[in-house]
Amino acid sequence: MTSYDRPTTDTSADRSSATAPPPDAAGDAHGRHDGKHLTEAALFEAFGGVRGMVETVLPGLLFVAIYTVNRDLHVSAIAALAVSLVLAAVRLVRRDTMKHAFSGVFGVAFGVVFAMMTGNAKDFYLPGMLYTLGLSVAYFVTTLAGVPLIGLILGPVFKENLSWRTRNPGRKKAYAKASYAWGLILFAKCAILFPLYWWADTTHLGWVLIALKIPPFLLAVYLTWVFLAKAPPPIDVFAEMEAKERAEEAAKGEREKEREALNLVADGLARDVTPDAIAERPEGPRQGG
User: Would the keyword Membrane be found if you checked this record's keyword annotation (predicted)?
Assistant: First the structure.
């Protein structure tokens, strides 16, 4: 991995590089390994990790397994929807994040509705396939527009929001590469599935779709990790805002102290300048005595 290409504004870092400790397994002087670990944790959080993958695969796997055995669309669809609801309920009871479970429930529900309306079991997979195709196009379009979709997804996770767009060009470039990778991988997946939707039967399409659930996803996540591990670290805009608030509070406290000091001085002068004090003042020499 190459080191961060952060711009240097202080030559003291260059002067101290000759005496800096050598990099080791725990990380080098630039915190490169810490950045990798941060990226791994952020990707794990953003994409749901192992549990999120299970929640994505299990309903479809149950549908195709039951349909392969009994060829009953209604039983297969109801079983898939039931297991997705159970997975969401488990997350709700444990008070875990619900975004992955809800996305699974809605995806399965749309598939069930499509299949029930048309009576074609293959239509259970059609909404997910159309979503994948649309997501692939979104990755390409947003990247060409200068706002890579993967940056919009991961920016809040890294606490950088959209700072990478204008303040961190190296990171924006990494997000663009990752978005292109996601777009290409999803498009390749669609190029395999849509011909099968037209020509293969339901069980063949279902098993191929299940087989293509995890490997392309893991490849896209890995490439994202590679690109971001080589990129400059994220700018923590939340920490910047907190620091700004602390500075404003400190400045406000200083102004209040100065105001209190001025008030004390004014009060002291007011106590000295009283009618009795004026009367007790010695008279100056009179003119024209």
Answer: yes
